[in-house]
Amino acid sequence: MILDRTKQNGFTLIELMIVVAIVAILASVAYPSYIEYVRRGARAEARAAMLNMAQYQERNFSDRGAYVDVVAGTTPATPAAPWNSLNWSGSNYASRKYDVTVAVGTPPFTITATPANGHADPSCANLTLTNEGTKNSSAGTAATCWK
C-alpha cells in the first residue's frame, strides 16, 4: 500500500471565513435580543421594588399617619424603617439597575424608578407608580413597560 502524501486534510481559508461570517450574522441577530431580555429583567426588578415600596408606604401611613419621602442612593432618616435597603432594584446596591424614590404630596405619593449605575432603558426610561395604582412610563406605554 502506497501512501499519497500530497493530499492534506483540514479546512481551507475560504471555508473558515464562511463559518466566521455565519457566526457573525447569528451574533448580530442574537445580541440585541439578549440586551432586550436583560432590560426586561431589570425592569421587572424595578417594578417589584416599586410595589414593595408602595406596600411599605401604606404600612407606614397605617402605623404613623404619614407617608415618607425616599431619596435615591440614601436611606430614610428613620433607621428602623423597613425600606432602608429597598430604594434601589437588584441584589445589592453596587449592581443596582434602578434607583427608587418616593415624592410625597404628588398626589399623596409617587414612586419613581430611574435607570442608574450605567443601566439604560430607552424604550421605557423612568417608571412611575402612584398611591392610587396608576402606572406610567416616561418613554414607552404603560401597557408595554408594566407587563
Notes on the protein architecture:
The chain has 147 residues and is of the alpha+beta class. The protein has one domain (13-145). The chain is built from two helices and four strands. The chain has helices spanning 13-64, 142-145; strands at residues 98-104, 109-115, 127-130, 135-137. Strands 1-2-3-4 form a four-stranded antiparallel β-sheet. β3 (127-130) and β4 form a beta hairpin. The chain is rod-shaped. Residues 75-79 have low confidence and may be disordered.
Structure summarized in a few sentences:
With 147 residues, the chain is α+β, with helices and mostly antiparallel strands. Helices cover 38% and strands 14% of the residues. The protein has one domain.
Supply database-style keywords:
147 residues, four-stranded antiparallel sheet, 2 helices, 4 strands
